[in-house]
Specification:
Blueprint: H1 2-9, H2 28-32, H3 35-38, H4 43-63, H5 68-81, H6 92-106, H7 113-127
Helix pairs in contact: 4-5, 4-6, 4-7, 5-6, 6-7
GO biological process, one term: regulation of transcription by RNA polymerase II
GO molecular function, one term: cyclin-dependent protein serine/threonine kinase regulator activity
Keywords: Cyclin
Length: 130
């Protein structure tokens, strides 16, 4: 009984969250050296991979007829993933596919796993000119 009264007395105040330009979501120290850079990947190559991943998500989203909000959410998920994990250790295409799948569910416009896989396979075939 004593525990129940203590937890009911403890008050949590979440109304004091302040977002400003100085209060960024990703700290500068995480932006300066990403896990990919620590694994030896050049900054320019990492930037190119990030751009390519976002273009891949955008193309797949258009083919799946997803709303732009879902594609943007997938790109944010993709970018944030690679600020904590390395391009060296995780396949960019698989992460892009997973990001799009997750974002479609978050934005309540889900697509079947099979459709997402088929679209990414189609994009890969077109890029390889097959």
């Amino acid at each position: 009984m004593a525990e129940v009264t203590q937890t009911s007395i403890m008050k949590r105040d979440f109304s004091r969250v302040v977002l400003t330009l100085e209060n960024v979501l990703i700290p500068d120290d995480k932006l300066s050296e990403t896990p990919s850079m620590l694994d030896g990947l050049d900054k320019e190559i990492e930037t190119d991979l990030r751009i390519l991943g976002c273009e891949l998500i955008q193309t797949a989203g258009i083919l799946l007829k997803l709303p732009q909000v879902a594609m943007a959410t997938a790109q944010v998920v993709f970018q944030r993933f690679y600020y904590s994990k390395s391009f060296i250790k995780h396949n960019m295409e698989v992460v892009a596919m997973a990001s799009l799948m997750l974002a479609s569910k978050i934005e309540e416009c889900p697509r079947r796993n099979r459709d997402v896989i088929n679209v990414f396979h189609h994009i890969k075939q077109v890029r390889n000119k097959r």
